Amino acid sequence: MKTQLLCTFSTKTDVENHLELIKSNYTLAYNYIYVLQNKNIPNELFVTYNVVVENQQPNLEMKTILVHRKKQSNTLYTINALNNVIMEATGGQLDNKFEVDWEKYRNCILVTNTEGVKKIYTRVFDVIDLTK
Questions:
Q1: Are 44 and 11 in contact (CB under 8 A)?
Q2: pLDDT one-digit tens code per residue, 65-86
Q3: What is the pLDDT of residues 20-46, one digit of tens each?
Q4: Is the CB of residue 73 less than 8 Å from the CB of residue 105?
Q5: Phi/psi of residue 30, nearest 5 degrees
Q6: 32 sits in which H/E element
Q7: Cα–Cα distance list, 115 to 38, 50, 66, 81, 119 (Å)
Q8: 3 state DSSP class of 66
Q9: Cystine design at 130: which of 31, 59, 62, 77 (Cβ 3.0–4.6 Å)?
Q10: pLDDT, mean of residues 94-114
Q11: pTM summary value
């Protein structure tokens, strides 16, 4: 079974609606959905969940991205953000052997914007157990 980790951007107001859309539109690989909160902007939430890849179509009602996770530091990141982190550390070179110091990015989401890498520090807001 091939899975992907997705992250849906939400708010406290919209999170319940987003959770229902996730449950009805995706085949979830595991029985947990993790909701993270932006430490600096508490109304911003990030809903993370693993989906089975087979025939999944993104729901256009939600702002969702594909992310990867470094378990040791609890870091979520996009490939573009990882590439930018490496290039910043190596003076502009994309070195696929470069070892990232993941402790610098503990408990955060790394994404890119027009200015480069954006670090969003997070904390666990809720863990939804779908078996209940």
A1: yes
A2: 999 999 999 999 999 999 999 9
A3: 999 988 899 999 999 999 999 999 999
A4: yes
A5: -130, 170
A6: strand 32-38
A7: 19, 29, 20, 11, 12
A8: strand
A9: 31
A10: 94
A11: 0.91
The first and second tokens of residue 109, run together, are 């989401």
Give phi and psi for 19, each to the nearest 5: -60, -40
Tokens of 4: 């992907």
Cβ-contact 70, 106 below 8 angstroms: no
* Nearest Cα residue to 67 out of 4, 11, 2: 4
The fraction of the chain above a pLDDT of 70, given in percent, is 95
| pLDDT > 70? residue 55 | no
- Of 24, 33, 16, 104, give the one whose Cα is nearest residue 59: 24
Cα–Cα dist 90/74, whole Å = 23
Is 115 exposed, middle or buried, given 0-12, 13-18 or 19+ CB atoms closer than 10 A?
Answer: exposed
Q: Which residues pair with 33 in a beta bridge?
A: 128
Backbone φ, ψ for residue 91 (5° rounding): 70, 35
Average pLDDT over every residue of 53-75? 84
Buried b (16+ CB within 10 A) or exposed e, 54-66: eeeeeeeebebbe
**How does the average pLDDT of the chain come out, rounded?**
93
